[in-house]
Amino acid sequence: MIPFDVNEGTGPVVLGMPHVGTEIPDDLVSRLNDAGRAIADTDWWIDQLYDGLLANVTVVKAQFSRYVIDANRDPSGVSLYPGQNTTGVCPTITFDGDPIYRDDQEPGEDEIAERVRDYHNAYHSALAGQIERVKAIHDVAVLYDCHSIRSHIPYLFDGQLPVFNIGTNGGETCAASIEQAVVAVCAATDGFDHALNGRFKGGWTTRTYGQPEQDVHAIQMEMGQRAYMEENPPWAYRQDRAAKVRPHLQEILTRLERLALDGNL
Questions:
Q1: What is the pLDDT of residue 265?
Q2: Where in the chain are the domains?
Q3: Using omega within 30 degrees of 0 as the cis cutoff, is the peptide bond preceding 25 cis?
Q4: Structure confidence at residue 217 (pLDDT)
Q5: Strands across the sheet containing 216-224
Q6: Which is the CATH superfamily of the domain at 4-262?
Q7: Measured distance CA(228)–CA(247) in Å, rounded
């Protein structure tokens, strides 16, 4: 399996997609139960949702499923949300808290370390390389980390999640102008709610690469999947829904690019 796919652009914006992958090695598939093989916690269709919204954008996509390794978790296994239910760098449960492995088939420490090396590290090596390349061109890089999630997951959060969930780790991972621009677009939408640093404050990717003092800015967008797809199997992409939300995403990316190119960060 090739761990990642890269589409190089010449603009200052990089899209990260660590959870869109669905590939699982054959030897691992046989160890998963039905819930594991369903890979329900995939960020379904995120690459299609963002496709064509910004010219000259760089895209880095993981090809492997987050059930192989979660490329948006701390590779050391430390929780990004202490005290809250979550899944780890090598998930053994679904977002609903259900096991994904058959009995006695969960990976041990050595296997987890190998997966971190072969998948997590490989993806982030590619992502870091693209951020460095873009910054060399423009003296600045903006990483926009693309995610999505079901709107109702009682194991992880109460009630219904907003459509737009913006994460900047409390404003630490990007310039204030970037955070303000994204919030402004989301607040002006008709019928789509939003939250800033709510249940999702930005994962390991955003928190690691977001170093505005080094002219690398990072922001995470966790989309409520109801805005563009069916949230139940077979998780169909809904063109009619996506058509309503894509213009707002396009406006977000366009504003971020403009801020970077104009030096207004």
A1: 80
A2: 4-262
A3: no
A4: 98
A5: 4-7, 58-62, 13-17, 141-149, 216-224, 164-167, 194-196
A6: Zn-dependent exopeptidases (3.40.630.40)
A7: 12
